Amino acid sequence: MGRRSIKENKNIYFTSREESGLTRAEASELMEYISESRIDKIENNRTIVQPSDIVAMAKAYKKPSLCNYYCTHECRIGQDTVEEIHLSNFSELSLSIFNTLNALNNQKERLLQIAEDGTVGDDEMADFTKIQENLNKMSTTIESLKLWVNQAIADGQLKTD
After folding, report:
1. What is d(CA 89, CA 99) in angstroms, rounded to the nearest whole number?
2. What secondary structure letter does DSSP report for 9?
3. From the DSSP assignment, how many helices (H) and strands (E) are in the chain?
4. Cβ atoms within 10 Å, residue 23
5. What is the C-alpha to C-alpha distance for residues 146 and 63, in angstroms, rounded to an integer?
6. Which end of the chain is more exposed for a tag (fewer CB within 10 A), N or C?
7. What confidence tens digit (pLDDT) does each residue in 101-129 have?
8. Distance (Å, rounded) from C-alpha 140 to C-alpha 135?
9. Nearest CA to 18 among 2, 36, 38, 41?
10. Is 116 helix (H, G, I), strand (E, B) or coil?
11. What is the C-alpha end-to-end distance of the chain, expressed in Å?
């Protein structure tokens, strides 16, 4: 491996490559179509990174969280529609899923009452908002669990066959 950079303020793509123990040349070889000079430009913010670059880096660096980072920080659509996910441990994620499922189970009758007339009235808004918060929490937790699984596969901790 080459020398480690002493540059300050490295972007996430730079640090991800370094954490994976790859030089730019090695990373370029793994990504096939992304040249060493393009990697340099991405890492030093001299070019706009493309989604296909991110997918290739996530695979080569064994860091699937790069895709979520890109969507939540650099993609204009993703900034409005994708929740930023942080890696957590399996136990924490499992407990969060079950706690949220229990909360939603307790709220299902109220949701049916609210939905009965096809509208959400002013008197129903507070309960509907709580239900929506739990649904959002469930969605985020599921995405976090999917990221955990993808990271465990990339790290060789889970087998896919």
Report:
1. 16
2. S
3. 8, 0
4. 16
5. 13
6. C
7. 999 999 999 999 999 999 999 999 999 99
8. 9
9. 2
10. coil
11. 32
